[in-house]
Specification:
mainly alpha, single chain
């Protein structure tokens, strides 16, 4: 049989629960203010991220969807006896589309303009500049690592 808890214990538990709730609520409030101040100072601006997402959708999304649809189309052709397709060619064509999607992912990220204006349709002129930005972003991290060793 359970012993009855004293009133003091119950009151202490209620106080502790209340203190924990308020402490964590205050912690969340302070962490949100810190996160918002950091987001505004560094990172990729929203208009650039949107531009990258559009380019990635077309240059990586469409080839990836085609890579998956190769299996479906090949299955339909083989099961309806339209043609005999070897499995190796299905895999090779699918792999080609997936590699094209991987290249499109890199192209979509590197070809996006960081200016307020959208820039050209393909954005090829932005690739060397964005590669330099990427190298510069990793440069301080490697310098700090070399100084410590």
């Amino acid at each position: 049989m359970k012993k009855k808890q004293s009133k003091k214990r119950k009151q202490n538990k209620k106080k502790n629960n209340y203190l924990e709730k308020t402490a964590f609520a205050n912690l969340e409030k302070t962490s949100n203010t810190l996160a918002t101040s950091k987001q505004s100072s560094s990172g990729i601006p929203k208009y650039v991220a949107d531009r990258m997402a559009r380019r990635i959708f077309f240059t990586a999304g469409i080839p990836t969807i085609l890579g998956m649809s190769v299996f479906v189309v090949s299955y339909i052709i083989v099961t309806r006896n339209i043609a005999e397709i070897p499995p190796s060619s299905t895999i090779a064509i699918s792999a080609l589309f997936f590699l094209l999607g991987l290249a499109g992912l890199s192209f979509g990220i590197l070809s996006a303009s960081w200016d307020k204006e959208p820039g050209s349709f393909f954005g090829i002129e932005n690739i060397p500049m964005n590669i330099q930005r990427a190298k510069a972003a990793f440069k301080p991290a490697t310098q700090n690592f070399e100084d410590k060793t």
